[in-house]
Amino acid sequence: MDRLETRLTRLEYGSRPHVEALLEKPAPGVHVLVDEVRVRQGKGLAGNHERVSWWKGKPVAGREVTAMAAEVLEALGAQAAVPGDNLITRDLDLRTLREGDQICVGSVILERTSGMHRPCSLFARRISEEARRAVLATNTRGALFVVLQSGIVRIGDPIRFS
């Protein structure tokens, strides 16, 4: 196991899960950190461009909100806006969430989907190929969600299990 993989397997999470950062994608490749977001049932973040959940010309079901842990980003030496995830969590090991698990974030209810949040070549270009391999090997890329209840999410909002 290489050094980065070792760091990722040894991450420690606190006991007060909350929102560390929020990111909208108003256009392809444009990442904007914001203090609050409106999240829409069946759509995702209101500030995202309409094809944000598409891959290779097709929509990807179950990918309305993407999440990554701040602890993982820190281990990778990456800033919150770099990978492009909508929701950056703190004190929540996203690997522990299973398909169907629901979390309340602000006034929003999200449900973990079956889709795997895998690091792609774009992730490697934004951070590094070493980071892509390490995140893949340790399953620390994050989680994908659908929106069950619309609402507002703000930085600092607690994350609770529903």
Descriptive overview:
The chain has 162 residues and is an alpha+beta fold. It has one domain: PK beta-barrel domain-like (M1 Pyruvate Kinase, Domain 3, Beta Barrel), CATH 2.40.33. It is 19% helix and 36% strand. It is built from four helices and 13 strands. The protein has helices at 3-9, 70-76, 121-126, 129-138; strands at 18-27, 30-34, 36-40, 44-45, 54-55, 58-59, 65-69, 87-90, 102-105, 108-112, 143-149, 151-154, 159-161. The strands form three sheets. It has an eight-stranded mixed β-sheet. Strands 4-3-12 form a three-stranded antiparallel β-sheet, with no helix packed on it. Strand 1 (18-27) and strand 2 (30-34) form a beta hairpin. It is globular and about 40 Å long.
Percent of residues in beta strands: 35-45%
The helix/strand order is HEEEEEEEHEEEHHEEE
Name given to the CATH homologous superfamily: PK beta-barrel domain-like
Count of discrete alpha- or pi-helical segments spanning 4 or more residues: 4
- Largest beta-sheet characterization: 8 strands, mixed
CATH class placement: Mainly Beta
* Strand line-up in the sheet with most strands: 2-1-8-7-11-10-9-13
Number of individual domains: 1
Architecture, CATH level 2? Beta Barrel
Distance between the termini: 36 Å
Contiguous uncertain segments of 5+ residues: none
Based on CA atoms alone, the radius of gyration comes out at 15 Å
